[in-house]
Amino acid sequence: MDYQNRAGSKFGGGGVASGSATNADRRERLRKLALETIDLDKDPYFFKNHVGSFECRLCLTVHQNDGSYLAHTQGRKHQTNLARRAAREAREASKDGAMMMGMSGVQIRKNVVKIGRPGYKITKVRDNLTRQVGLLFQLLYPEIGQDVVPKIRFMSAYEQKIEDPPDKNYQYLLIAAEPYETCGFKLQSREVDRRGDSFWEWWDEDKKEFWCQILFKTERDERIGDAPGLAPRR
Fold this sequence. Notes:
By secondary structure, this protein is an alpha+beta fold. It folds into two domains: about 20-100, no CATH class; about 120-225, Immunoglobulin-like (Sandwich). The chain has four helices and ten strands, in the order αβββααβββββββα. It has helices at about 20-35, 65-75, 75-100, 220-225; strands at about 45-50, 55, 60-65, 120-125, 135-140, 150-155, 170-175, 185-190, 200-205, 210-215. A hairpin with a 4-residue loop joins strand 2 and strand 3. Helix 1 packs across helix 2 (about 65-75). The chain starts with 18 loop residues before the first helix and ends in a 10-residue tail after the last helix. InterPro entries: Matrin/U1-C_Znf_C2H2, Matrin/U1-like-C_Znf_C2H2, SF3A2, SF3A2_dom, Znf_C2H2_type.
């Protein structure tokens, strides 16, 4: 490059570089610096598209040749995005580490791979003495996790997100046991009788079977259960 015949320069002084010449010289220096520190084969953000151009997946920029891409990697935009990506990954790692530890210091299982729904059987039952009607649930968990016991929970129609709009005439019984998917059973919205042996659950560790029986209160019990002067329900 001729540095001696630039406008405003003295003979032998090298001259005053124009803006374009300065940028070209800067890009060349950055490209040489990048060649010494970057291996494009190991760069996760380097991508050659179908038209032969080079793309930076981090900054979403397109470059006509590898020299332009290498100069870009040494620029402020790419370096800033690298710093932001590193900071975000550090925050996510610390958050995941905090979630994996319970408040008591016990490690909590996270992102358990589900293996499908368990086999189940539902039987209608009736109490011979009280004439209460109910349901008996039997679920099979042959591949249940070690030291895992199925848990149950009743959910109102307004808590679930599957049926919209929610129907107040129904409620849901949820039974969960890892690594199986949670089973939900749609029940009529009647009060479950939790007195005595009306409501019970049992886990057979040997056969890997879970049993649960629920009986609904009779219409008479529901009607007078909250009458003044009566003992509170259990």
